[in-house]
Amino acid sequence: MTMTQSHPRRGLLLILSSPSGAGKSTLARRLMAWDTTLRFSVSATTRAPRPGEEDGREYYFKTREAFGAMVQSGDMLEHAEVFGNFYGSPRGPVEQAMKVGRDTLFDIDWQGGQQIRNSALGRDVVSIFVLPPSIAELESRLRGRAQDSEEVIAGRMAKSQSEISHWAEYDYVIVNRDIDNAFNELTTILEAERLRRDRQPALADFVRGLNREFEAR
Ligand SMILES: Nc1nc2c(ncn2[C@@H]2O[C@H](COP(=O)(O)OP(=O)(O)O)[C@@H](O)[C@H]2O)c(=O)[nH]1
Ligand SMILES: Nc1ncnc2c1ncn2[C@@H]1O[C@H](COP(=O)(O)OP(=O)(O)O)[C@@H](O)[C@H]1O
């Protein structure tokens, strides 16, 4: 029997979180281009689209009523209020991907990370927190992105210290100083975690064989 027949592969849930502006969307975009088998979990949000954002690509843009209805009917795997707007990960596509052993990438905040880690899917989670090299650089990246008003930027900066305080809840931490180095760390983590996942069932078989050998002595 082949390994895939006896042990259907489970999809990994790769969670990326960071204070706003540290670079997690940039890393997520690069990772999706690097590995086209990864599925990006497109969140629903009540925040307004930024210039260039497309409904269904970066987010599903929803009214508060429509968002509330999704939560009520159990369609969200997790949801949270972030910077005064609601954000949530639709459950259906994640469960579909898990079933066929496809890995899913989430760009969600620490509250969402905590909810998925504590859910029935928790054992398939690999979580990564992205830190900026300095707070001055974080602010300059938020400004450089030039997509938010001064007020929005100030609000995000004010929240960044409490966001950062959750770093130790994550499996891995990447300091995004140089984007190429940060991206290399990210792909190394994914490759190592995939190896671990893929080897686990075969290892269990192997140890059963060792035990049979013990018993036969
Ligand atoms: N819990 C949760 N957080 C989300 C979700 N989608 C996005 N976020 C987080 O919401 C925050 C704001 O996202 P966004 O408005 O795109 O701003 P940006 O992070 O500055 O690009 C970020 O920390 C995202 O990771 C989601 O589905 N659930
Ligand atoms: N290592 C880096 N060095 C310099 N600029 C970066 C780096 N990583 C990301 N950026 C830039 O910083 C800004 C914020 O990045 P973004 O990915 O949108 O952050 P987040 O999704 O965490 O809010 C973007 O303009 C992005 O191009």
UniProtKB/TrEMBL annotation:
<comment type="similarity">
    <text>Belongs to the guanylate kinase family.</text>
</comment>
<feature type="domain" description="Guanylate kinase-like">
    <location>
        <begin position="11"/>
        <end position="191"/>
    </location>
</feature>
<keyword id="KW-0418">Kinase</keyword>
<comment type="function">
    <text>Essential for recycling GMP and indirectly, cGMP.</text>
</comment>
<dbReference type="InterPro" id="IPR008144">
    <property type="entry name" value="Guanylate_kin-like_dom"/>
</dbReference>
<feature type="binding site">
    <location>
        <begin position="18"/>
        <end position="25"/>
    </location>
    <ligand>
        <name>ATP</name>
    </ligand>
</feature>
<dbReference type="Pfam" id="PF00625">
    <property type="entry name" value="Guanylate_kin"/>
</dbReference>
<dbReference type="InterPro" id="IPR020590">
    <property type="entry name" value="Guanylate_kinase_CS"/>
</dbReference>
<dbReference type="InterPro" id="IPR017665">
    <property type="entry name" value="Guanylate_kinase"/>
</dbReference>
<dbReference type="InterPro" id="IPR027417">
    <property type="entry name" value="P-loop_NTPase"/>
</dbReference>
<dbReference type="GO" id="GO:0004385">
    <property type="term" value="F:GMP kinase activity"/>
</dbReference>
<keyword id="KW-0963">Cytoplasm</keyword>
<dbReference type="GO" id="GO:0005524">
    <property type="term" value="F:ATP binding"/>
</dbReference>
<dbReference type="GO" id="GO:0005829">
    <property type="term" value="C:cytosol"/>
</dbReference>
<keyword id="KW-0808">Transferase</keyword>
<protein>
    <recommendedName>
        <fullName>Guanylate kinase</fullName>
        <ecNumber>2.7.4.8</ecNumber>
    </recommendedName>
</protein>
<dbReference type="InterPro" id="IPR008145">
    <property type="entry name" value="GK/Ca_channel_bsu"/>
</dbReference>
<keyword id="KW-0547">Nucleotide-binding</keyword>
<keyword id="KW-0067">ATP-binding</keyword>
